[in-house]
Specification:
alpha/beta, disordered N terminus, Methyltransferase like 27, Methyltransf_25
Length: 238
C-alpha cells in the first residue's frame, strides 16, 4: 500500500511540476482544462496550504461581518478558496478563471453566486470599478499564468478601503517572477494606490516537486517549497 501511495505522489509531483514549467498561457489553460477533474486530490496530496493561509489573512483584516462582504476570487480554479471562505462565514462570492474545465468544477461546488470565464491579462475583469469589498488571487501569480501587468485590474474592481490578497511561490524557479511582482506591488504603493498590510513568508507552502525546489530542513521526504501571502488595502478617495 505504501508503495502504491508513493507511486501516486510521484505522479502528482510530476503533474504539478509540469504545470509549473509551462510558460505559454494558451498551453497552460489547456493543461488546466485536462487537469481539472484531478486537481483537488492532487493539490491535497501535496499538502497545498495557500487557500487556507490567504483566507485566514483576509479574515483577520476585513472589518464587519463576513456575510455582508462581496468577495471576488480571481483565478478561482475549482473553488478551493471559496470553500475556505464559506467555512469562515463568507456567503457572497464571485469567481473568474481562464479555464472552462476549472470553472465547471467550481460550479459543481455550488458556492459562487456568479462565475465568469475571463483570462486576466488579456481582458478586463467583468465587473465595474469599485465593486468588491475584497479581491483574492491565490496560486496564479507565476510565469505562464497571470502577468504582473494585470495587478492594477484587481485594484480597479476593489472598493476604496477594500482589501486585495495575493499569493505567490518563492521557490527557486519562481523567484524571477516574484521579483517582478514585488516591483509592481511597490510601484502601486509608491503611487498611493494602496498600502501594504501584510507580507507573510511561509516555509511549508506545499510539497516540493523536486529536491532542488525545497526549503532545506522542511521534510525528510523531498521537502516543501516556500511561498508568501500579501495583503493590501486600497486607499480611500481623497
Amino acid at each position: 500500500m505504501a508503495q502504491e501511495e508513493g507511486g501516486s505522489l510521484s505522479q502528482v509531483r510530476a503533474r504539478v511540476g509540469a504545470s509549473h514549467g509551462i510558460t505559454d498561457l494558451a498551453q497552460k489553460l489547456r493543461f488546466y482544462d485536462r487537469w481539472a477533474s484531478d486537481y483537488d486530490q492532487d493539490v491535497a496530496a501535496l499538502q497545498y496550504r495557500a487557500p487556507n493561509l490567504a483566507v485566514d489573512c483576509l479574515t483577520q483584516a476585513l472589518p464587519g461581518p463576513p456575510q455582508a462582504a462581496l468577495i471576488l476570487d480571481v483565478a478561482c480554479g475549482t473553488g478551493l478558496v471559496a470553500a475556505e471562505l464559506q467555512a469562515r462565514g463568507f456567503l457572497q462570492l464571485h469567481g473568474v478563471d481562464g479555464s472552462s474545465g476549472m470553472l465547471e468544477q467550481a460550479r459543481a461546488r455550488g458556492l459562487y453566486q456568479r462565475l465568469s470565464l475571463c483570462t486576466l491579462g488579456q481582458e478586463p475583469l467583468p465587473s465595474p470599478e469599485g465593486t468588491y469589498d475584497a479581491v483574492l488571487m491565490v496560486g496564479a501569480l507565476s510565469d505562464g499564468q497571470v502577468p504582473c501587468s494585470a495587478i492594477p485590474e484587481l485594484l480597479r474592481v476593489t472598493k476604496p478601503g477594500g482589501l486585495v490578497c495575493l499569493t505567490t511561490r518563492t521557490n527557486p524557479s519562481n523567484l524571477q517572477y516574484k521579483e517582478a511582482l514585488e516591483a509592481t506591488l511597490d510601484k502601486l504603493e509608491q503611487a498611493r494606490e494602496w498600502e501594504r498590510l501584510v507580507a507573510s513568508p511561509v516555509d511549508r507552502w506545499e510539497l516540493a516537486t523536486t529536491k532542488l525546489e525545497a526549503v532545506p530542513g522542511t521534510s525528510d521526504s523531498g521537502g516543501f517549497i516556500s511561498g508568501i501571502v500579501y495583503l493590501y488595502r486600497k486607499r480611500q478617495v481623497a
